[in-house]
Amino acid sequence: MKTSVLGEIGERRFLREYWQRKPLLIRQALPGFQSPLTPDELAGLALEEEVESRLVLERGRKGPWELRNGPFTAEDFAKLPKTRWSLLVQAVDQWVPEVHALRAHFDFLPAWRFDDLMISYAPDQGGVGPHFDHYDVFLLQATGRRRWRIGPACTDATPVRTDTSLRILEHFETLEEFVLEPGDMLYIPPGVSHWGIAEGECMTFSIGFRAPSHAEILVDIANGAAQRLDEGLRYMDPPLGSDVQEGEIPPAALRRVQRVLQEMAADSELVREWFGRYMTQRKYADLDITPEALPDDLRAWLRAGGVLERHPASRFAWSGAEAPFMLFVDGEALPCDDPALARLLCSRAPLDARALKPALARQPGRALLEELVARGALYCAD
Ligand code: SIN
Ligand code: CO
User: CATH assignment of 298-381?
Assistant: First the structure.
């Protein structure tokens, strides 16, 4: 049985008391944890064009808390000072299978909330400074030691330094302090300030979760809804009587506008489709994952022992409480009349001929699988 990364706290208590509420330190969340990646391998990833990477220098050439964006060269690394900087590489789960496998430890949370697993490397005293994130994050110590200071919850109104483009807090009040060793993990809810400082060289894995801001929800849903609306649908006056004063916008007119917004919000299919599509958008939607070649006959290939794998960058979710049943893959709502197939696709279960037999027996199931293979969301493992 897989041990829980939440240790003694357990999933129920964690979700009830800590998730999105309070920080939590879990000593030996992954006992005996060994990093699947060395600092050199991490630096190697940061040389790649398609990989998102950053360097943060506490005492940069251009000023304090200098941000440099990758890709980098070996020469860039050779010129770095001995201490007080950090290399951050995003979405390593999409590039290193052993890192991707760590996601399974977080299956107590919906997979569609996961954003990426970022890895940071720092020499002694390195870090990204005191800050807060808008996202939930689990900070897993992978190698070496890091001192974490936890401060109060912040908002966008909390003062930040003006001498750097990074959002570094002007003041930091330490409320709690821990030194993490390999295998220890710290959970930080959105908004809670934190500051990690390497004690000797170290690597930290950040498991981050995505959540749309209210602004994104409003703008994005409204954009989608607007495309479907007839230009002829217009504001209509409420009954205009003699009680309206000159120049006054009467409350009844405002209620008419509110009704337009309420109708959009009450359209549960619109909201459901938008949310499913949004939460399954790939982190790097422009990265082409479509395969160069496809098997001529997918069913025959599976029957001959082939196994389909979910692409590490692909995201799957389903929604079935209301008709029609919806399957979301990589930001698209796909027609799917087979809830069992959708659930299978959204799970970690292997996709072999046995598991896919009922789906392959029906034309819509075969068509859906072929489409997902053609898109690259599923690929044919050798
Ligand atoms: C780090 O790994 O140094 C930064 C992670 C974080 O503070 O969110
Ligand atoms: Co952070």
Answer: 3.40.366.30
